[in-house]
Amino acid sequence: MMTPFAWLTLSLSLYVVGALLSLCLARNDDWAIKLSGAAALLAGLAGVAAALPVLTSAQPLLASFDGPFVAFARLTLRLDALAAFMVLVISLLAAITALYSFAYLQEYRGRAGAMGFYMNLFIASMVALVVTDNAFYFIILFEVMSLSSYFLVISDQDDEAINAGLLYFLIAHAGSVLIMVAFFLLYRASGSLDFADFRQAQLPPLQASVVFLLAFFGFGAKAGMLPLHGWLPRAHPAAPSHASALMSGVMVKIGIFGIIKVGIDLLGATATWWGVVVLAFGAVSSVLGVLYALAEHDIKRLLAYHTVENIGIILMGVGVGMIGIATHQPLLAALGLLGGLYHLLNHALFKGLLFLGAGAVIYRLHSKDMEKMGGLARRMPYTALAFLVGCMAISALPPLNGFVSEWFTYQSLFTLSHQGSFGLRLIAPIAIVMLAITGALAAMCFVKVYGISFSGAPRSEKADRAREVPWPMTLAMGLLALLCVALGVGASLVAPVITQVAVSLTGEAAPVVAHGLTLFPGNPAQTSLSTPLIFILLLALPLLPLLLYVGAKGGRQAFRQRGTPWACGYEYEGAMAASAGSFTQPLRVLFAPLYRIRKTLAPGPLLQRTLEQTTRAAENAEPLLDNRIVMPLASALQRVSRAMQWIQHGDFRLYCLYVVAALVVLLLITMA
Fold first, then answer.
1. Can you give the pLDDT at residue 607?
2. What is the rounded CA–CA span in Å between residue 62 and residue 47?
3. Are 244 and 119 a contacting pair, CB within 8 Å?
4. Which of 62, 386, 579, 619 is most buried, with most CB under 10 Å away?
5. Are 24 and 54 in contact (CB under 8 A)?
């Protein structure tokens, strides 16, 4: 029987083989698409097989290799509960996006080989990063992940993609610099690059706080939290949709993983204000992220802003968990981390589903503008159904998975409001209100998205001619939709597993209720909820008024149409239907100051000028070597050659004389 490390090695090997085969077969698109997709699919399944035994046993596994590549850095792998959880999230979404790519990459013929190479390398770097236990290899893999995703962003090679990629490149590497400085401070304190030695380092409180802040903002840039989110709504829409699903679903979670790794695992979350900072940034990111999403008409840009929102929700849970650890409240710590980690998994699934659904629409319409969609539910029924499940999940509607993780986050905030100091009790209700506002605005936003894109009449000729996408794409979306339902209905089975991950980080056992969703953990018998019961009630309640109506009208008579429907409903729908802009116009007026903040937080004129100057400098630097060095040398050699041509007369006897003269000169040199 294969061990978890054997499965992990197989998974990484398959990603590398898939990347190399895809690159070698770049001229044969069909084989490149098939082999890169098959390798990623099998590698993802192997990654799931590696993670599950560790999650169920909650025992960390270690593997160490002394200096296989670099003498001063020992390659150590640590497959603990948190790493196994991240491997599971990455591998699950990677396998499903690989299935999706079999059909989707047909749109990228001519570039499919390079795309398969970067995609497999991108996934492999993320999987390897979360299990490495050495700062040197962590940074190397972090850079590989950033560079491979950068090349995926610029794969379209248009101005929008190149500008988005350059902005992403600059912000990602600015974050990398902060992370390297944080690791350098830990290295100075411990004398080693191993995370095991970092955990044992005794840092003064001020230095520990500096390390935490450096890591928080460095990884926060990768996570896309406000105000470091400027790259995210530009890079995600520019990338191919299956790459957008992975970038939004799992790559930004590497930022969350890094914050947890440094703040909790390496530093122990010793200061209460660290958790307050994480909670505050999370609350602001969640509200502003959904507000900015509401104003968007580009479906992928809208989904990218919702990534900012959901990263904020995850950070709220992580922040509460860090407060619980710092104040020695194991129940609060476990509840906060349970909510954050559960939402991390859920967001990977429903955001992956939504990006794949958006990709399916773009695959048929070749447009990201929602104003050119409409009526797609009748023409693309399977895509519409899967996208509807994703909309309901991200809106936290029961019994889907988004509801469960947000419920646990509410639980942690309610618990915080009843424990701790006065300041913490004051912070908790504010965070609860902000989370409630976020949920309400998210539901409104996805009513707009689904209503404008899939309901009503077609708004363009392409929308009118749209048809369902190929079966690999519909199957991939269907699997993610089923997982969204399963993680909601089966929360009582999933929550104990994620609780073990949370408890492994807190270091103390906590009596978290795992077989129900409890509002007040102190008295679970009074306030527990059952997601299967909610599921049954939600299925049964709509049938009750229907049965009453049928009984009152008398059987079949109830279903007979009478008269012409109301004009705004059907007959004049094309002329009178709401647009994406009119739907959110009142909110844009009401929250105008917050939308003005977006312009301030977005890359401003200074950064834009910097990018333009950098581009011009690169354009000028590219021919500099040729103009100043290569061409002058070539011209000089040509002049010397022309000057030496007089010695070439074509007479064999003269050439023999040259040879004799050369030998005489060499003989004189040796005698001197």
1. 52
2. 16
3. no
4. 386
5. no
Q: Which two tokens stand for residue 212?
A: 């935490």
CA separation, residue 565 to residues 457, 545, 559, 596 (Å): 15, 21, 14, 42
Q: Rounded to 5 degrees, what angle do the CA atoms 437, 441, 442 make? A: 115
Q: How do the residues of the chain divide into helix, strand and coil, expressed in percent and rounded to 5? A: 80, 5, 20
| Helices and strands of the chain, counted as H and E runs | 31, 4
Q: Which of 352, 124, 315, 93 is nearest to 220 (CA)?
A: 315
Residue 225: DSSP 8-state: -
Q: With CA atoms as reference, report the closest residue to 167 among 633, 638, 607.
A: 607
Helical ranges in 490-579 per DSSP H: 491-506, 524-527, 531-540, 543-553, 573-576
Task: Identify the CA nearest to 521 among candidates 495, 552, 549.
Answer: 495
Q: How far apart are CA 497 and CA 479, in angstroms?
A: 21
Where b means 16+ CB within 10 Å and e means fewer, 483-503 reads: bbbebbbebbebbebbbbbbb
What's the CA gap between 104 and 108, in Å, rounded? Answer: 8
Cβ-proximal residues to 221 (8 Å cutoff; 6+ apart), any chain: 171, 172, 174, 175, 178, 228, 255
Residues 157-167 have pLDDT tens digits of 777 778 888 88
Q: Where are the beta strands (DSSP E) in 394-452?
A: none
Peptide bond into 399 cis (omega under 30): yes
Say which residue, 505 or 566, is predicted with more confidence: 505
Count Cβ atoms within 10 A of the Cβ of residue 290 and give its class: 0-12 exposed, 13-18 middle, 19 or more buried: buried
Q: Whole-angstrom Cα distance, residue 626 to residue 619? A: 13
Section 71-100 average pLDDT: 88
Give pLDDT tens digits for 371-400.
888 888 888 999 999 999 999 999 988 888
